[in-house]
Amino acid sequence: MYKIILNPFAGKGKAFKCVRTIEKYFTKFNMPYEMVLTNCSRQAIDFAHEAVIQGVENIIAAGGDGTINEVINGIMKSGYPENVNLGVIPIGGGNDFAKNLDLPYKLRDIVQIIKDNHVQLVDIGQIEDYYFINTLGVGFDAQVAISYTKNKWLNGFHGYIYAVMKALIRKDSYYVTVTINGETFTQDALFVTVGNGICCGGRFHLTPDAKIDDELFDFCIFDKLSRRKIVKFIPKAVKGTHTELAAAHMYKGKEILIEAQRDLPLYLDGEIPFIKDRKHIHVKILPHRIQLITPEPE
User: Fold this and answer.
1) Is residue 157 predicted with pLDDT exceeding 80?
2) Which DSSP state fits 189?
3) How far apart are CA 42 and CA 142, in angstroms?
4) pTM metric for this prediction
């Protein structure tokens, strides 16, 4: 049995146009399913939680990164993530997490992969009572994510570029104390990115060497930059070649503590969570916690 949790508003409404096509292929491939559409934020958490408790074997998150994030949180909330497989149909704006999976473009081929049911154990991250599967950001990239969520018209990468331009107007840096692998240091940082996956913001490969199943985060900590240098940084961040810059500091580890004297802007998987303590941000990895349906390796 497949429980499809679809966010019709994902991709600024693009996802709703895919409903009939998805149903067509699940029917054609003789895959018994039930589809539910969300109509408000956090509803996918409840749908996923209920599905696990009811014994559904496969939950399919159809939407963008926010939909996947909510489904992950619902699965973890159930207490039985080992009882369910998670499939992904990326029909949102940026579809950043899907870039880790090398999924085909056509919906027919994606549904075929779900039917083939090749399962891979993957890591997720945790901060307070929230879970994420792709990236968490603190600082400038969080400002960009906050601006993007308020934009009702521009979608995907173009929406993020517009959000970057808006964030540049009030560009901040953040004096933070960071602890990774028992080593503590302080710096004036533009942003701190915690990557379980390789990409965020539609095309920004801030942690290009990250792997979703290596039991480690990749961290990118970037020094304070002028507006002019940030603009020059953008093309390199898209390609993932920013790691060669002196301002970029790359690390790997299982957890990170980010401390500051003031509240820090934060996002995870493109969503803006309600974090109780934004001055002391502790993020840890939960290895091999989600059973993810992925393409079979060639």
Assistant:
1) no
2) E
3) 20
4) 0.93
**Structure tokens belonging to residue 218:** 């990749």
Contact 210, 167 (CB under 8 A): no
* Range name among 120-134, 176-190, 227-241 with the lowest pLDDT average: 227-241
Mind giving me the DSSP string for 39-74?
Answer: -STTHHHHHHHHHHHTT-SEEEEEESHHHHHHHHHH
To the nearest 10 degrees (0 to 180), the angle between helices 140-150 and 156-169 is 120
What burial class does residue 5 get, using C-beta atoms within 10 Å of its C-beta: 0-12 exposed, 13-18 middle, 19+ buried? buried
- What the chain holds in terms of domains, given with CATH numbers, is 2-117 (3.40.50.10330), 135-285 (2.60.200.40)
Q: What digits encode the pLDDT tens for the residues 202-226? A: 888 999 999 999 999 999 999 988 8
- CA distances in angstroms from 248 to 51, 70, 84, 221, listed in the order given: 42, 31, 38, 6
Q: Enter the tokens of residue 97.
A: 């997490």
The amino acid at residue 83 is: N
Q: How many Cα atoms are found within 13 Å in the side-chain-facing hemisphere of 17?
A: 6
- More confident: 149 or 291: 291
Residue 282, beta-bridge partner list: 257
| Whole-angstrom distance, CA of residue 191 vs CA of residue 213 | 24
Number of H helices, E strands in the chain: 7, 14
Kindly report the average pLDDT of the chain as a whole number: 92
Residue 191 is inside which H or E element, if any?
Answer: strand 183-195
Would you say 187 and 247 are in contact if contact means Cβ atoms under 8 Å apart?
A: no
b/e 120-149 (16+ beta carbons within 10 angstroms → b): bebbbbbbeebbbbbbbbbbbbbbbbbbbe
